[in-house]
Amino acid sequence: MKIAVIRISGRTRKNKEIEDTFKMLHLYKKFSCAIIEDCPSNLGMIKKLKDYVTYGPVSSEVLALLSKKGDKGEKSYRLHPPVGGFERKGTKKSFKEGGALGDRGEKINDLIKRMI
């Protein structure tokens, strides 16, 4: 299974460990998206970044849309800000609290479609 990880926050005031984890996932800029495998080491990196990213399992339909957007060898995709904005409570609260961060589950596919 593949997981989509989207960087929500910018580059201000992050410690070196967080920035290194972003680099390992090829998430260099705000609104960049990486498609990664569902394995324990990747899940550990996602847990470390849960306050800066949103993530969830990606469908094959959305993978096809992203592959049209970039090259085959690309590890990350640049996306636009979402049409209609993020959730009501903004980018500083978790998705379960009505914000934009953390695990979205299957709803990550809707967000990516709004950002392409």
Structure description:
The structure is a single chain. The protein has 116 residues and is of the alpha+beta class. The protein has helices at residues 16-24, 40-48, 60-69, 108-115; strands at residues 2-7, 32-37, 53-57, 76-78, 102-103. It has one domain: 2-Layer Sandwich (Ribosomal Protein L30, Chain: A), CATH 3.30.1390.20. The chain is built from four helices and five strands; from the N terminus they run βαβαβαββα. Strands 4-2-1-3-5 form a five-stranded mixed β-sheet, with no helix packed on it. The longest helix has 10 residues, at 60-69. The two termini are 21 Å apart. 25% of the residues are buried.
Briefly, what CATH class? Alpha Beta
- SS-derived structural category: alpha+beta
| Helix-strand topology string | EHEHEHEEH
Q: Catalogue the unreliable spans.
A: none
Largest sheet geometry: 5 strands, mixed
Mean pLDDT: 89
The rounded Rg comes to 13 Å
Number of strands: 5
Short description:
The chain has helices at 16-24, 40-48, 60-69, 108-115; strands at residues 2-7, 32-37, 53-57, 76-78, 102-103.
Keywords:
single chain, 116 residues, alpha+beta, Ribosomal Protein L30, Chain: A, five-stranded mixed beta sheet
List the helices and strands and how they pair.
Blueprint lengths: L1 E6 L8 H9 L7 E6 L2 H9 L4 E5 L2 H10 L6 E3 L23 E2 L4 H8 L1
Parallel strand pairs: 3-5
Antiparallel strand pairs: 1-2, 1-3, 2-4
